[in-house]
């Protein structure tokens, strides 16, 4: 049975053959005080192919300075999932085509709105079965952070450097070249776990603390779905870092075997 899950604001779960995915997103204190909606969006889904089940997780963070940031983030999630499905149908296709397709589909998703009014970051991990192992592809534009834990080790992509804090965030809808996308591929021979964080929380989680955060999320797996989502949302709302004004989104994916 194929189970898919999508959410833009609440924690939900998909489960099949030992795989699990859940996440949550909450508005930041600054947006709550201003009466603004959450401008993050996320999704986790999977689908069957001839080669096996493909897994996809994505987080988009609309730029707060843009009037249609929320719509841009939601469009980013839809475009990322559509691009992933199309790209995965062409085995061996370069990852450059994945991000080019995502860019075009996002502009179609936001039309007739002006892309600049809808600017959003985009962070996606795509897991494709490849024989007896997994091909894990991560693409990232703008801030946000992805971490992947496999039997072969721990890999991270994204997260802001000190230099980036003083620069304008690059995003869908802002001027940039295709090489602004960060792209990473890793192989996994067995179970792997994925963590996606929007910058409202990624900025506060150090690289040394990422494995501990993954372990905490793993401990939530045994809880019923409503309790899991409630615990994650509560943690995000009570995030103990001064100045934590931005929206916060976490997506967790764990897959057992090919």
UniProtKB/TrEMBL annotation:
GO molecular function, one term: protein serine/threonine phosphatase activity
Any Pfam family: PP2C_2
Superkingdom assignment: Bacteria
Annotated PPM-type phosphatase domain residues: 28-234
EC number: 3.1.3.16
Keyword tags: Hydrolase
InterPro entries, per the entry: PPM-type-like_dom_sf (IPR036457), PPM-type_phosphatase-like_dom (IPR001932)
Protein name: PP2C family serine/threonine-protein phosphatase
Lineage: Bacteria, Thermotogati, Deinococcota, Deinococci, Deinococcales
